[in-house]
Amino acid sequence: MKKHCLLLSFTITMFLSCTPPEQTDFTDTNDFQEFIELRWKINAEGSVSSSPCISDNVVYFGSAVSDIENEGYLYAVETETGKEKWRFKTKGEVHSTPAVSNGVVYFGCDDNYFYAVYTDTGKVKWRFQTWSNVRSVPLVANGVVYFGGDDNYFYSIDAETGLLKWKLKTLGAVSSSRYIVDNVIYFGSKSGYLYSVKLKTKSK
């Protein structure tokens, strides 16, 4: 088992850095204990396919309401107690995994909007309209939020104002995660292509 875990860790590091690691740190499997108890669970009133995002002891995730068409929520839940801090209602299912930056949580929705919501109040800061579902995982970097949509576009939005900076037309829906390194952003499309986009740096 330990050999398998080390191999998995090495493979993940190779994928992220594309260079062989000099040393791979991995917690010994003996440090993991057996299942003790269920700490808590929360009823999201529908399916949860959005992966959780944790920031400042709060877990954020989206849901799709089972019995009501075109309705979903983004939840903010305390990690220690499972107590709901707030929920933000949308007019579509929320399958997008959220991202948190500077007191704002960003996520996409099947109502064709991409949202920025304040983490402390659950009130909307801004929303940006696209032409289809938004199910990709957003990335926030240098005051800009990047995400893809099922409308075949990859978007760059000002994280503070919600205004469009630029968008790139692709050959298929963009629902993948994205990775940025050395001012180049990489993302995939359901068209079968992987895209590499050079970003302009701010002049000093």
Summarize the helices and strands and which ones pair or pack.
Blueprint: H1 2-17, E1 46-47, E2 53-55, E3 58-65, E4 72-78, E5 84-90, E6 99-101, E7 104-108, E8 113-118, E9 124-129, E10 139-141, E11 144-148, E12 153-158, E13 164-169, E14 178-181, E15 184-188, E16 194-198
Antiparallel strand pairs: 1-3, 2-3, 3-4, 4-5, 6-7, 7-8, 8-9, 10-11, 11-12, 12-13, 14-15, 15-16
What distinguishing features does this structure have?
mainly beta, 8% helix, four-stranded antiparallel sheet, 204 residues, five-stranded antiparallel sheet
Number of domains: 1
Tell me about the largest β-sheet: 5 strands, antiparallel
Whole-number mean pLDDT: 84
Query: Roughly how many Å apart are the termini?
Result: 51 Å
Secondary structure: helix percent: under 10%
Poorly predicted spans? 1-26
How do the SSEs run, as a string of H and E?
HEEEEEEEEEEEEEEEE
The CATH topology is: Lipocalin
Number of helices: 1
Query: Class by helix and strand content?
Result: mainly beta
CATH architecture: Beta Barrel
Q: Measured on Cα atoms, how large is the radius of gyration? A: 19 Å
Strand content: 35-45%
Q: What is the count of β-strands?
A: 16
User: What CATH first level would be assigned?
Assistant: Mainly Beta
From the spread of the alpha carbons, the general shape counts as globular
